[in-house]
Amino acid sequence: VRSSTPAGLSHKEAELYSRLDPARFPRHIAIIMDGNGRWAKRRHLPRIAGHRSGVFAVRNTVQCASRIGLPALTLYAFSVENWLRRPKTETSFLMGLLRRYLKIEMPAFQEHNVRVQFIGRWRELPAEVQERMDWAIEETINNTGLRLTFAINYGGRSEIVDAVNSILQTARRNGHHAEVDEESIDQHLYTSHLPELDLLIRTSGEMRLSNFLLWQAAYSEIYVTEALWPDFNGVKLLEAIGEFQKRERRFGGIESIHHSTVHTA
Ligand code: FPP
User: Fold this and answer.
1) Which sign, positive or negative, has the C-alpha torsion 82, 86, 88, 90?
2) Which residue's alpha carbon is at the smallest distance from atom 8 of ligand 1?
């Protein structure tokens, strides 16, 4: 293990970290946290027990991400569809869990210099949840380490719709013609302040984007693991980064010629 291994990593995490190339670290990782329900079902437990265990996975993953100096981590906590299609008892349990999580985790956020933010139409959530979210944002606003973003009541299509509407509104306010191009959409997305999305991880095996970061994922590497979310952790995060480093990102161009076949269209 190199001497530059960050402090606080477990033995296994440190070992995986030491095999990574520091020059090719992702700057922004996003995770679709799926499989809490299946995790609980396998144990003959109610679904909410899976969500409760999911919180431990969030904690461990965030801790590792911040120790290795990852600049940005975005977690898909609840989609717009989650609201519509899940029983009320489950969504209100998830709301309570989020409130408790933010409160309990605050000392750790401060200790690890984590800045908490939210994306999605979270202004539609119950007032007491929004209050806790506002509080978490305010409390961590001066932290300069990991930018931890929770996507809550989030949808990728509605994000693009919101971006376009915001472009139109700005133009109307300034009395000029709205110009919509890739750059202006980029600048009006919820994630405009975050680095380019390098790696998108999905747990529990499904090969879908599920309306998550549709625009941002255009050139991201996608890594799907069979692990259910409650079984995810820092070790699995480092394994995903290792896999990311094995792949070659080309952005539609040809970055290295040596093993690629050049197709003439
Ligand atoms: C997916 O599992 C998970 C969710 C919809 C909720 C995500 C919540 C957590 C990870 C825990 C709480 C998080 C915070 C930040 C407090 P699923 O229920 O869709 O699983 P299934 O597909 O197996 O049914």
Assistant:
1) negative
2) 77
Tens-place pLDDT, residues 9-58:
999 999 999 999 999 999 999 999 999 999 999 999 999 999 999 999 99
Cα–Cα distance for residue pair 114/70, rounded to 1 Å: 11
Q: Which residue has a Cα nearest atom 14 of ligand 1? A: 98
Cα of 8 from ligand 1 centre, angstroms: 27
pTM attached to this predicted model: 0.92
Q: Cα–Cα distance between 81 and 129 in angstroms, integer?
A: 18
Sign, CA dihedral 245-246-249-254, equals positive
Residues in CB range of 204: below 8 A, 6 or more apart: 34, 35, 38, 225, 226, 227, 228, 229
Task: Report the nearest atom of ligand 1 relative to the CA of 101.
Answer: 16
CB 106 within 8 A of CB 139: yes
CA-to-CA separations, 211 to 26, 171, 229, in angstroms, rounded: 22, 28, 18
**Per residue in 160-175, pLDDT tens?**
999 999 999 999 999 9
231 is catalytic: no
CA dist., res. 209 & res. 107, Å (int): 33
User: Ligand 1 — pocket residues by CB below 6 A?
Assistant: 33-38, 51, 54-55, 58, 77-78, 82, 94, 97-98, 101, 150, 229
3-state helix, strand, coil in the chain (%, to 5): 50, 15, 35
Cα(232)–Cα(2) distance, rounded to whole angstroms? Answer: 25
